[in-house]
Amino acid sequence: MSWLKEVIGTEKAIIAMLHMQAMPGDPSYSKDKGMAWIVEKAKRDLDALQEGGVDAIMFSNEYSLPYLTKVRTETVACMARTIGELKQYISVPYGVNVLWDPIASLDLAVATDAKFVREIFTGVYASDFGLWNTNCGEVVRHQYAIGAENVKLLFNIVPEAAKYLADRDIQQIAKSTVFNCKPDALCVSGLTAGAPTDTSTLKVVKDIVPDTVVLANTGCKKETIRNIFEIADGAVVATTFKVDGKFENPVDINRVKEFMEIVKDAR
Predict the structure, then answer these.
(1) pLDDT tens string 107-143
(2) What is the largest CA-CA distance in the chain?
(3) Is-contact 59 95, C-beta < 8 A?
(4) Could you report the per-residue pLDDT of 27-43, keeping only the tens digit for each?
(5) Could you give the C-alpha distances from 203 to 106, 121, 125, in angstroms and in order?
(6) Cis amide prior to 100 (ω within 30 degrees)
(7) Measured CA angle at 59 (ends 58, 60), to 5 deg
(8) How far apart are CA 71 and CA 105, in angstroms?
(9) Mean pLDDT over all residues of the chain?
(10) How far apart are CA 248 and CA 222, in angstroms?
(11) Concatenated DSSP letters of 131-170
């Protein structure tokens, strides 16, 4: 039995992403609509995801494109306000993801009582956002310094829109990451949000670190989730829950229900 059962309540867990609208300071932020609209949109998606039956939710600033690797203070503050206003309505375990800043994610987790964070904690990458470096030792020390030692760390080891600079295969990366950094889970992603996770890569990772939770991180659909569950311990799901299965759309409760019916049958 993994920590998923203890923290989320089930093995083969589905963690649904709640994509917050662009925040103040982001290029797509709507000054006319303001923060109240951001909270309202998040509340609608929260209701749809929970009523649809997901196991957990992860709040992220997904529409803060293009992403920063050192996030500005106003983003974290506005995310904290939004989650704070929604907290009375949250009925499932939840985590946070401040793209792409692990320190900010942990700070937000402490401020909002989140149970887990997902981030890029290790590696050096050439990415759409420039040269992308990490410092896992510093992040974990910050985690303990702020009292977040019980927050689960979900390591994305196949970053979206980025390539590992070192000439290492995914087996080496997974094995050394587990040995050196003790992640609570490894997340295996496709190229971008909504892009399918390659099941052969997923299997390679799970086979090399069988005692570590491995999650399919992108592109899960109702047609593929049974096959994914044969390999992975759970999945992070977002785009397939949205109207017409499009990244930019709001959550469609009927798509969530259809997906989760298949999940429950598979479990």
Answers:
(1) 999 999 999 999 999 999 999 988 999 999 999 999 9
(2) 51
(3) yes
(4) 999 999 999 999 999 99
(5) 29, 21, 23
(6) yes
(7) 115
(8) 9
(9) 95
(10) 19
(11) EE---HHHHHHHHHHTT-TTSEEEEESS-TTEEESS---H
